[in-house]
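Encode chain A's predicted structure.
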Amino acid sequence: MTTENKRILIVEDHPIVSHVMTSMLLDIDKDLEITIKSCANTALAALQKDGQEKPWFRIFLDLDIPGSQGLSLLQRCAELKVAQHCVIVSGTCSTQRSEEVKEIGALGFIKKNSLIQDFKNSLVSTLKGEATYQDSSSPLLCAALLTPRQQEMLCLLQRGFSSKKIAAQLGISPGTVDNHVAALVRRFGASGRMHAVAMAIELGLLDGRQRTHGPQGDEDLPTMADAKL
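Encoded structure for chain A:
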């Protein structure tokens, strides 16, 4: 990347996803100038007005945001002659959709549910100007779309609570807890519950300074304030 232009536009309506992407991008290059827009209208305004004053170096687009349907926002980018700077970042991926994105002229397609390092490597490649289209068969990690209950479970698991202890604290059955935990493990593509916690810490969804094992008293029950959301 040249030093003359480090302007990055992220078009994403999910705050956790935009937060994680911003952190990763700044980790790659701390001098990037990052702007976030959460709907198609504000994104187009930034592309039309701000882009005329100073072009965007990279535009990371989610397909599923308010005001956009399918590839409509990317098609508008093509009309504005900036599609070659666009990288689609989406939780929905298929070979057909990837080919359609290529035909419109986008630089790449990155899956939100990629493994963390794969996601970051793809960001690096696209910043270098390398066409990057992830294989739709790669392992999944949907960590950015956790439910409030799953976020709460992560906090409790990080403190070392067993399924029985979590069940007692939340007033649900141990079997229900195990179901939630199993869903978390699948969501992260982890090998077990503590591996899922470790991956959540790596993503910035949990504070890594908190204890991750050992018996806890009732007074140590974590709240959602313990999570970086």
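Confidence is low (pLDDT under 50) at residues 137-141, 212-229.
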